[in-house]
Design goal:
Blueprint: H1 6-19, E1 30-31, E2 37-39, E3 42-46, H2 59-72, H3 80-84, H4 87-100, E4 104-108, H5 111-123, E5 135-139, H6 144-152, E6 156-160, H7 165-173, E7 180-185, H8 197-207, E8 210-214, H9 229-232, E9 242-246, E10 256-260, H10 262-271, H11 273-276, H12 283-298, H13 303-321, E11 332-338, H14 340-352, E12 355-356, E13 359-360, E14 370-375, H15 382-393
Parallel strand pairs: 3-12, 5-6, 5-7, 7-8, 8-9
Antiparallel strand pairs: 1-2, 2-3, 4-10, 9-10, 11-14, 13-14
Helix pairs in contact: 2-12, 4-12, 5-6, 5-10, 7-8, 13-15
């Protein structure tokens, strides 16, 4: 009997993705002195990044990074639990906990690692007896890392229709004898809408389920001091015991954290494998993030207000043009196309017009729901937004109004 060839199976899967028009490749996007993107020799206005407040190139962040690197060096050389935990890390964790109104925060190198690690630690019971009997209930449109985290923990994963708190209740009620965690995005990364956090928090309290919110796209831009979608919903640490946030979007640096009470965060430190076995982020990056956090909390130059104005300007113009923009009040403004090839064609047309807007296709979004994921920043000017709207209006077919 001949063993099936693993390489051939992998290649067949790749070839099928190419035939389906879903193959993806990284492109080199250099940053120009004025903050635009240089792609294949052309300067483009970036309307698909997540630098929502335009802080990635802020001089305070770059100065903090440079100062700390001169002292700390570029890398830490070890995991947090070995010798990689520096004073800058500890200070950033304290400031993140204070910002989000929680007892403690734990740093991770990426948001994916934070979700994988935290869910593995909380649902997997640290490998103790009982592992595998936990229930994890999730929104169907949650980020892939939340889904993967539950599966890697060995939990029973049950998903409910998007933003349907009543359906979430039914999923919890299906396993009343299981310890349970309900996880949701705060702001959904592909649709841009906000989860029904208050209703979900009430549900978790009544059903004795731990509530976990991934607020990667809400932190920095929503709520008082930019403390995120949870704060904007008027919820505190009692109602949302576990909060994950990323540092590479509105805060303009890189990394992530999970915040909660002392007992929960200590369990994450003890049992989260992506935390235990990963080299700590550079201390200089933590210093830059502290500088960013000060800017975000004070918002002295009104970046959140400018972002809100840019969102309103875009949505008003899109409405006037009859563009099929999905119902989102956040910086994520998806333009639903449908077929993957249509989204790719629209993306190429926008690039020819001077705009970088990536087509989002399956499996990132469901079949038939390919889209242009347009993201707005406080750094965008009114003229840039108006020019993008003009280009969108000239797209053929369902993406624009040229064929109408």
């Amino acid at each position: 009997m001949s063993r099936p060839d693993l390489r051939a199976r992998v290649e067949a899967a790749r070839a099928q993705r190419e035939r389906d028009g879903l193959l993806r490749r990284p492109r080199t996007c250099e940053v120009t002195p004025d903050g635009q993107r240089l792609v294949d020799g052309r300067t483009l206005v970036d309307f698909c990044g997540n630098d929502y407040l335009g802080l990635a190139r802020h001089p305070d962040l770059m100065a903090a990074l440079s100062r700390a690197a001169a002292v700390e060096g570029v890398g830490t050389g070890a995991a947090h639990l070995v010798s990689g935990h520096r004073g800058e890390h500890a200070a950033l964790e304290e400031e993140l906990a204070d910002w989000t109104g929680r007892e403690r925060a734990v740093l991770f190198s990426t948001g994916v690692m934070a979700n994988l690690g935290a869910l593995q630690a909380l649902l997997g019971a640290g490998g103790l007896p009982g592992r595998g009997d936990a229930l994890c209930v999730q929104d169907r449109l949650n980020h892939a890392s939340l889904i993967d985290g539950a599966q890697l923990a060995g939990a029973e994963l049950r998903r409910y229709p998007h933003a349907d708190a009543e359906a979430a209740a039914r999923q919890l009620d299906a396993r009343p004898d299981h310890p349970a965690l309900l996880a949701t995005d705060g702001v959904f990364s592909m649709d841009g809408d906000v989860a029904p956090l208050a209703a979900l928090a009430t549900l978790c309290r009544k059903r004795h389920a731990l509530f976990y919110v991934d607020d990667a796209h809400g932190l920095g831009v929503l709520g008082t001091q930019g403390a995120g979608s949870v704060a904007a919903a008027g919820l505190d640490a009692t109602q949302v015991p576990v909060l994950m946030g990323t540092l590479g979007k509105a805060l303009g640096t890189a990394g992530a954290f999970v915040a909660g009470d002392a007992a929960l965060t200590e369990a994450i430190v003890q049992f989260a494998r992506p935390y235990i076995y990963t080299t700590a982020m550079p201390a200089a990056l933590a210093a830059a993030t502290r500088a960013s956090l000060r800017l975000v909390r004070a918002d002295a130059d009104g970046r959140r207000e400018q972002l809100a104005a840019n969102i309103a300007r875009f949505r008003l113009g899109a409405g006037q043009l009859g563009l099929p923009v999905m119902p989102s009040s956040t910086a994520i403004q998806p333009l639903l196309i449908g077929p993957a090839e249509g989204a790719l064609s629209a993306s190429r047309a926008l690039e020819a017009a001077g705009f970088l807007v990536v087509a989002i296709r399956p499996p990132t979004v469901p079949q038939g729901a390919a889209r242009l994921r347009i993201t707005l920043s406080a750094a965008h000017t009114p003229d840039q937004i108006d020019a993008l709207l003009d280009a969108l209006g000239r797209l053929p077919g369902p993406a624009g109004t040229a064929a109408v």
